[in-house]
Amino acid sequence: MRILISNDDGIYAKGIYYLAKELEKDHECIIVAPDKQRSAAGHAITLHRPITVKKVKLEGIKSIAYSVDGKPADCVKVAIEKLLEDKIDMIISGINNGFNLGTDVIYSGTVSAAVEGAIYKIPSIAVSVDFNADDEYYKRAARHVKKIAETSYSKLKNDVVLNINVPKEDIKGIKVCSLGNRIYVNAYIEEETGNEGERKFQLAGEVKDFDDVDTDVFYIKNGYITVTPLHYDLTNFNIINEVNLWLTKEVIL
Q1: Residue ranges of the binding site
Q2: Which of 225, 189, 223 is nearest to 206 (CA)?
Q3: Predicted confidence (pLDDT) per residue in 70-106, tens digit
Q4: In-domain check, residue 63
Q5: Is 219 part of a structural domain of the chain?
Q6: Number of separate domains in the chain
Q7: Nearest to residue 145, comparing CAs of 96, 87, 218, 86?
Q8: CATH number of the domain bearing residue 110
Q9: Cα(152)–Cα(196) distance, integer angstroms
Q10: Which residues are annotated as a binding site for a divalent metal cation?
Q11: Which is more confident, 244 or 66?
């Protein structure tokens, strides 16, 4: 396969190194990633200034690599539109430093890079591990995602993203499951500014997980690699007819 690799932790992140190192053993890889940390960038793109693309050399990696002074979605867009001469078979985004579980996917630049690939009708994968992973953890996750990618390529629809999270140790197997729910409590800490009329808040807080059975939040805590198929169509089909009924009956234009 020809695989485009991206992430949101930046071109020099440990996760992208180990992912590329594993994938390039058997596949042709091209790396296009942000020039610096862009976590929680979501699906933002750069509109009001040019973005700069620079060819870089990653120590120990044979694949061609480019840094982009933009967001993860920018990286995938500019790669497809301008940098890649031949067809890409798959996009893999990661390995992210920190799980992307449940509602995290809304904020995640890692997931958004993969979603951008799906928008271009390219099968895409996002992969994440727990915070502060050591080298062996990254290596193990890279081996697992390589197997999943090779198995899924001929079967995965081109507008679907597989969101993968790999637990730290004692892996029991793989669970294909739905997104769970997690919220961040006490999310902002107020800091002194010294300026009258000004308030400053630092995003912090703690994660509160809802451990509903059959979700990624539940299974990751029980030692399973979680795989959740995602799609960029956010339509709530369960209530589309209900909304149509109340609006067409009650709203007169």
Answers
A1: 8-9, 39, 96
A2: 189
A3: 999 999 999 999 999 899 999 999 999 999 999 899 9
A4: yes
A5: yes
A6: 1
A7: 96
A8: 3.40.1210.10
A9: 57
A10: 8-9, 39, 96
A11: 66
CA dist 95 and 116 (Å) reads 17
Structural domain containing residue 12: 2-181+212-250
Q: What is residue 249's predicted lDDT score, i.e. its pLDDT?
A: 73
pLDDT at 195: 81
The pLDDT > 70 percentage for the chain reads 98
Q: What is the pLDDT of residue 251?
A: 64
Q: pLDDT higher for 211 or 174?
A: 174
- Say whether pTM exceeds 0.70: yes
Phi, psi of 32 (to 5 degrees): -135, 115
Name the residue with tokens 């790396």. Answer: 31
**Is residue 8 exposed (0-12), middle (13-18) or buried (19+ Cβ within 10 Å)?**
buried
The Cα 79–Cα 206 span in angstroms is: 36
- Give me 157's structure tokens: 């629809």
